[in-house]
Description:
Low-confidence stretches: none
Strand content: 15-25%
CATH superfamily of the largest domain: FAD/NAD(P)-binding domain
Helix content: 25-40%
Mean pLDDT: 94
Distance between the termini: 57 Å
Amino acid sequence: MTKHIVIVGGGPAGYVAASHAAAEGAQVTLIDPHPLGGTCLHRGCIPTKTLVEVCNLLDKMRRAESYGLHMSGTVEPDWPAIRAKAGKVIDLLNTGINSLMADRRVAHVQGRGRILDGHHVEVAGHGVIEADAVLICTGSSPILPESFDADRARVVTSDDLLHWDTLPRFLLIVGDGVVACEYAFIMNALGVQVTLVAMGERPLPFIDSDISAIVQREMRRRGIEFINKCAVESLMAIPDGVVALADDKVVASAERVLVAIGRRPNTQGMGLEEAGVELGPRGEIVTNGFMQTCLDGLYAVGDVNGRLALAHAASAQARLAVDHALGVECAPLDESIIPWAVFTMPEIGCVGMTEQRAIETGHAVSAGRFDLRGLGKAQAMSELTGMAKVVADRVSGRLLGVHIIGAHASDMVHEAAVLLRQGATVHAITQTVHAHPTLSEAIHEAAEDALGQAVHKPMKRKKTHHAEALS
Length: 471
C-alpha cells in the first residue's frame, strides 16, 4: 500500500523531503503558503552568495593591474542591477524546484498547516489532510528584539535588506555570526562604511581561532570597524539615522542597522502545544536522532528543530526522516562532521573539531598549518590571503578537523568531510597525491605539517613529540 507523506514547509528541508519521498514511491503533499525554496533561496543562501560573487568580481576588477590588465575608467557597483541579478537567479531556481515537484507528482497545497497530531494537518480552505507521517519543515526567522525595533525603515534583518532601493553610506551591523560577517564584507565591497558590534571577542566565535583571526585581520585591512565585547541593549532612532546603546551609552551610530543576532524556529501558530508536541527553550521542536518528535508519525526537520542551522544539514535530515517514516533502513546523522561554508572575503570551509574543541575533549593535539601564499596556484591567481589547518590526534593520528580560509575554501572542504566520515588518519591526506598546481595542495601541506614534514615550509630540524607520535 502506498504511504502518504505530508510535508509542512517548502524550503531546503521540505522540498528535498518531498522529492526523496516521491522517489521512494510515496504519495506526497507539500503545504506552504509561499513560493517553494524557503529562506535559503529567497532571502538567504542564494541571494547573498550572488552578492558575494558580484563583490569578488568587483574586487578582482579593482585589482586588474596586478594581473597585467589595464582598464579604462573606474568600476562602480550598480545596486539596482545587482539586486536584479540576484532576482533572476532566485526566479530560475524557483522555477527549477517547481518543475521537480511537478515531475514527481508532488501536490503543492498553498496554505498554512496546523498540526492536529502525527497523522492529520489542517489547512484553511482545504480541510484536514490525513497522512501516514507528517514532516514539519517550517524553518526559522531572524530575531529582532522589541528594544531594537526603533524604525523598520532603518533597522532591518537579513529578510529585509535585499528590498532596499538604495544603499546607505554608513551601516551598523549588530552580531558576530555568519550573516553579520558575510554582510559586513558584502556591504564594504559595495562602498558602504561598515561598523560591526559584537558581544564576543572575535568574529565567528564558533570557528577555529586561527581562521577567525584572519577574518578579523581582513576586516581591519578593508576598513570594517569591529567593536568587540559590547552587548547592544537597544537601538534608538535619531533624525539622520540610528544609534546603538549599551550601558546607556552610545557605542555606535549609522544611517541604517542590520540586526543579525540569530534566528528563531518558526513554530508559532501551528497548534503544536495544543497537539502535545514537546518544545525546547527557544521554541524548537525536540527530536531524536531520526528527527522524530514525541508524537507518533510526526517529524521535525531543519532549522525548526534547532539542531543545526544549515540548509544542507536540513536536506540531509529530510532524507533521513523520510527513510525512517517509510521503513527504509537508516542510521542517525553524525552532525559533528557536517561541513560549514561561510562566504566572507575570503571564504571559509571547515568540518570537524576546532583545535580548541579537540583539546577540551581530551585529545593530545597536533595541528598543521599552511599559508595559501606558499602555493603556486594561489600566486598565479593573486589570491594569497588564507590558510589551511589540519587538526589530528597526535597519538592515534586520527583526523579530527580541517579548517580552510581562502579562495574556493567552501569547495575544497569536502575532501576532509569524506575522510572524517570514514574515521581516517592524517596519513590518508599525506599519502594521497594532490594535483599540482591546485589550491587543494594547501590541505596536503597542512597535513604534512602536522607530521613535521611539510615540503614547502622551513624544515623542522628536530621532530617534535607530536610528529614522533604521529609518524
